Amino acid sequence: MKHDSWLAKKIASGDFIVTAELLPQASTAIPEIEAAISFLGNSIAAVNVADNPHGPVLSSLAGSLVLVKAGMEPVYQIVTRDRNRIAIQSDLLGAGALGIRNVLCLSGHHQTLTGSPESANVYDIDSIQLIAAVKQMRDQGVLLDGTEIKGVFPVLIGAVANPDMNPLELNILRLAKKVEAGAEFIQTQAVFDVEAFERWIEQARNQKITENTAILAGVMPLSGYQDAETLRDHYMDLSIPDSIIERLKKAGDEGAQKKEGLNICLETIRKIKKMDGVKGIHILSGGKEKLVPEIIASLD
Question: Could you tell me where the beta strands, DSSP code E, fall in the chain?
């Protein structure tokens, strides 16, 4: 099916792509999310709306609609942690009806890493099965049980990858399965170990994966060494080298550490841009959307 998303057109153009993350809050105040949107500007190809990454917040579906109304293109995120296949397909149909044209499929952090550790997880289907389900809905026009979908569902399908997951061979195998299932773009988790990422993207090139999907490398500005240590200790899938933490410590006071964290992010971007097989970056601002314009300005 022909895509009509701006992100799909940017991928087809071959231009270097920039997407960014928007972290909704536990709020019904639309002006708050509109204020965050104001920092993102028009140079962003699309904006991800996180799906309850740390506990209950404004839904990704509602946040994506706010973006549509603001004239920006959302990437609707949907995790399998919180919904069974009935709820997932229902929300996807809702996204299609609301004009949302990009979907990112992921499992989501385990509930023990959120503010609601007592919550039951669902995981009725995994992220690869979710990708395949979205592709079936789009290309065959039917739900998982064969029910015909009335209307079109022209979405661009995305997935997430963790370049730091070991062993590398199994990491690449899982990435290949996501692309085979239908993932047309991949947004990676934040890259801090550039050498490890380079080995990962080299293997993805060798397996021809980069020819069949658009890989956007995740980048994140760190606020300081304590921020880095907390992320590394809390989220075991994030690999932040000791050298980066020491560099942040040596920077000085809180303000100096923030500046150094931004400098590290910009240096990482410059290195990533030189790597074959990388189609763009995905800015994981961690709720610091006001830093996005400075990051984008550095790309020129």
Answer: 17-22, 46-49, 74-79, 102-106, 156-161, 185-190, 214-219, 278-283
Q: Are strands 102-106 and 156-161 parallel, antiparallel or unpaired?
A: parallel
pLDDT at 163 over 60: yes
Please tell me the total count of domains within the chain.
Answer: 1
End-to-end CA distance of the chain: 34
Residue 245 pLDDT greater than 70, yes or no: yes
pLDDT at 284: 94
**DSSP for residue 300:** -
- Looking up residue 131, the CATH number of its domain turns out to be 3.20.20.220
Residue 43 banded pLDDT, cuts 50, 70, 90: confident
3-state helix, strand, coil in the chain (%, to 5): 45, 15, 40
Query: Residue 239: which of 292, 179, 171 has the closest Cα?
Result: 171
Spatial CA neighbour of 23 closest among 268, 290, 294, 297: 290
What single DSSP character describes residue 21?
E
Asked if residue 1 belongs to a domain, the reply is: no
In which domain, by residue range, is 192 found? 6-297
